[in-house]
Design goal:
The complex is a heterodimer of chains A (516) and B (248). Chain A has 516 residues and is an alpha+beta fold. Chain A contains 17 helices and 11 strands. In chain A, strands 1, 2, 3, 4, 5, 6, 7, 8, 9, 10 and 11 form an 11-stranded antiparallel beta sheet that branches. In chain A, a hairpin with a 2-residue loop joins strand 4 and strand 5. The relative contact order of chain A is 0.08. A 7-stranded mixed beta sheet of chain B has the order 3-4-2-5-1-6-7, sandwiched between helices. In chain B, strand 3 and strand 4 form a beta hairpin. The chains are: A alpha+beta (516), B alpha/beta (248). At the A-B interface, strand 6 of A face strand 3 of B.
Chain lengths: 516, 248
């Protein structure tokens, strides 16, 4: 429980009053700071967790707590790392790795001040509850933004002594007349730093009224996707973690898909101007993403080979990392170029004007969004079912690739317009589509990986050759990838059967009718 | 979750001192740590100033619905908890005997704590019994403090014989020298000769020291009142060595 301490209550007076309640052990007040960390997409917050780095008299400790009751889930001595895998082996690393995966930790906000701890004792001089008093507190989210915080006190439980904590809380409220803090410190600091917890998610969140004009809905989709691009831009340029580029590219892909799906509902000049530009953005971001995927899956590569041979892959990893650094430098230059800046600025300028004031929008933009969504989803869903049904064991990989592209379009449409349909129906459809996409995606990725590894192994003279044992290991790896690809291929029929279950056509008739 | 037990058939060899000091060091490094004081004498419970009482006694602890969770108490040290001793533990053998698969009981009881703790230290009573067998089946590492005397060596051999007879191949036995007095030639001889026959004996030896004896007066882990004394430094080194074994 957190309480606000009135300014008139001096530390000495607080100490005396607590002593009158129970035997007390007081530590000396210590200068320190408390800094909270999370990933860019608030993964810890979404799990109801907070990661705090407490530094008292220069000694740092990192703790993972539950937001709300403050219960401790793990801790280590030391500073917060950039990535969970940088932590020493142990439960905290395992927990954080599972939640954060490859996302970087960022300091979000913190507080510095005087921390004083008290232990409430029983007749055996044993600690039965704890108190932390924070005074002279200054909140900060960087060297410039700093703000003063009112002094506060937090009562903390000791396991197995719940009654003693309840008594203490009663005393603090009734005996000392302390006011319960309306918000816990974490929330106050996030607010002070101008952050809204959970304000970024890579998942799209569009809400439409079925009768809303399609043009307005399309504009809202583009604006949200543009926001996502802009928010991920800095992390992409600085390569803070690989997910920035991934989310940046997803927003570009969605924008491209929307431009092609809605071209009849938008001004032709706009589609003609921006479609190639977003295609260019897709192209310039591909090399780094491909290399990121290789590096992220590198442990998987190693596991495909016998232990003795897996160590032979080390030079390949170094080579991939070197290529990634070069490609990243080139990408950063492109993203700082006038061409790129102009695309985003022009796109935003165009989106600033709503369709009803911009006469270049065609009349079809006034159609109800539900009607447009139904038509598009119906068409693409039927196409996916048709293309999938035509694939058999002898079909060439190109057919699978075509189906994959159709499924992607369908997925984006369902995500754009999911608010227009019953949640359970659309979620079930997205789920079965996702299972199918995973299969198609893995098949295609394995193809790309095998080809890319072959290209690296056959590297032209510009680079020093890889050691023979590494080339041998790459050869083995390509073979394993091909075997795995065959296995993935055999799973396609079952995945597609689930997606194309008889209910799907009924679903199309029921929810994606011509007239909503 | 790693389960370590401090055990010896012989009493007064430093089992409880080892359990308390190693658990304290683990918690101080940030690991969520529990000590289960299985000895009805309740020395570990006494050191932590906690009442040697478990609600409902051993019977409820072994057979109750709440398992062990509801009896755990926090100590004076963050992240270090204790499952206290209870005088009824003197009947644990009889109670275990009436259970199905008695030697697997502790392992089953401790399993739900896997998400709550990184380390659990079982501080065992001396003697060899159904309780110790249940401990051997639950623990990953058996830490055996040995005073360098012929009698201690004999008990160590008895433990190895028991391990062989019962097929406890999953249990890693890590003996270490305790209460070593280098002024005594017998101690010096045994400390030098035993590792040649038993290479698994840990390198770190805990010296005989009055500071360790004072734990009973101060009721604190050694590192909490005399962190730089020889024995405290030896416990820190011992913990590092044990962690290496846990990683390997």
């Amino acid at each position: 429980m957190e309480y606000l301490l009135p300014e008139i209550l001096t530390p000495a007076s607080l100490h005396d009053q607590l002593c009158s309640f129970a035997p007390l052990k007081a530590e000396l007040p210590r200068e320190g700071c408390l800094c909270y960390f999370d990933s860019f997409d608030w993964r810890l917050f979404h799990q109801g967790l907070i990661l705090e780095e407490e530094t008292l008299d220069g000694s740092p400790a990192l703790r993972l707590r539950r937001l709300g009751n403050g219960s401790l889930l793990g801790s280590v001595v030391g500073h917060a790392p950039d990535f969970a895998e940088d932590l020493p082996p142990g439960a905290l690393r395992d927990t954080l790795k599972e939640i954060l995966e490859d996302r970087r930790l960022f300091p979000l906000a913190g507080v510095q001040g005087l921390f004083q701890r008290f232990s409430l004792l029983d007749d055996q001089q044993k600690t039965v509850a704890r108190l932390v008093v924070l005074t002279q507190a200054i909140g900060a989210d960087g060297p410039k933004n700093r703000w003063r915080l009112s002094p506060r006190l937090r009562s903390e439980p000791v396991r197995g002594y719940d009654r003693e904590l309840r008594k203490l809380d009663r005393f603090l409220r009734s005996g000392l007349c302390l006011e319960t803090a309306p918000e816990e410190l974490w929330h106050i600091l996030m607010g002070g730093a101008g952050r809204s917890p959970g304000d970024y998610s890579s998942k799209p969140d569009f809400r439409f009224d079925p009768a809303q004009p399609a043009g307005e809905a399309i504009r809202a989709i583009f604006l949200q996707l543009l926001d996502s691009m802009e928010r991920n831009l800095d992390g992409t340029i600085r390569d803070l973690d690989s997910e920035f580029l991934h989310d940046f590219r997803v927003a570009i892909r969605r924008t491209r898909a929307a431009l092609s799906q809605f071209k009849g509902l938008m001004p032709t000049t706009v589609v003609e101007r921006f479609h190639p530009e977003f295609a260019w953005l897709g192209t310039i971001t591909t090399p780094v993403r491909d290399l990121d995927v290789h590096l992220l899956g590198f442990d998987g590569y190693r596991n495909l080979l016998p232990p003795k041979q897996s160590s032979d892959l080390a030079p390949l990893r170094e080579r991939l990392m070197a290529h990634q650094r070069t490609a990243q430098r080139q990408l950063a230059e492109e993203l700082a170029s006038p061409r790129f800046r102009k695309i985003l600025a022009d796109w935003r300028a165009w989106l600033a004007k709503p369709p009803f004031v911009d006469l270049s929008w065609p009349e079809s933009a006034a159609l109800p969004v539900a009607k447009v969504a139904n038509a598009r989803i119906r068409r693409i869903l039927r196409r996916a079912l048709r293309e999938g049904a035509a694939i058999d064991d002898g079909s060439p990989p190109e057919d699978l690739h075509e189906l994959r592209k159709t499924c992607k379009k369908l997925r984006y449409l369902l995500e754009f317009f999911q608010s227009l349909y019953p949640h359970d129906k659309i979620s079930a459809l997205i789920r079965s589509l996702k299972e199918l996409q995973d299969n198609l995606g893995e098949f295609q990725d394995l193809e790309v990986h095998a080809q890319a590894l072959r290209a690296i192994a056959m590297m032209p003279t510009a680079e020093p050759p890889l050691p023979p044992e590494t080339l041998l290991a790459i050869g083995q790896l390509i073979e394993r990838l091909r075997e795995h690809q065959q296995q993935v291929r055999t799973e396609f029929a079952a995945r597609f059967a689930v997606f194309a279950a008889p209910g799907k056509r009924r679903l199309v008739r029921q929810h994606f009718r011509k007239e909503p | 979750m790693k389960i370590l037990a401090t055990y010896n058939i012989k009493g007064g060899v430093g089992k409880t001192a080892a359990a308390i000091n190693l658990a304290y060091l683990a918690a101080r490094d940030g690991a969520r740590t529990l000590v289960w004081d299985l000895d009805p004498q309740g020395a570990a419970t006494f050191y932590f100033r906690i009442k040697p009482k478990v609600k409902g006694g051993s019977e409820k602890l072994l057979g109750g619905k709440n398992g062990l969770e509801s009896s755990i108490k926090g100590t004076d040290y963050p992240q270090l908890d204790l499952l206290p001793a209870d005088f009824s533990y003197r009947h644990l053998d009889i109670l275990l005997d009436s259970e199905k698969k008695p030697t697997k009981r502790f392992k089953k009881l401790l399993a739900p704590l896997a998400t709550s703790y990184d380390y659990i230290f079982l501080d065992c009573p001396p003697s060899i019994s159904l309780v110790s067998e249940a401990v051997f089946r639950a623990a990953e590492i058996l830490l055996v403090p040995i005073i360098p005397t012929p009698l201690s060596l004999r008990t160590l051999e008895q433990i190895y014989a028991f391990e062989q007879d019962e097929g406890l191949e999953d249990l890693k036995i890590l003996p270490f020298f305790s209460m070593v007095d280098r002024r005594k030639s017998l101690h010096r001889e045994i400390v030098e000769s035993l590792p040649q026959q038993r290479p698994e004996v840990l390198e770190t030896e805990i010296p005989y020291a009055s500071e360790v004896e004072q734990m009973g007066i101060r009721r604190l882990p050694l590192a909490a009142y005399s962190p730089h004394c020889r024995a405290a430094l030896a416990f820190a080194e011992l913990w590092r060595e044990i962690q290496d074994h846990l990683i390997s």
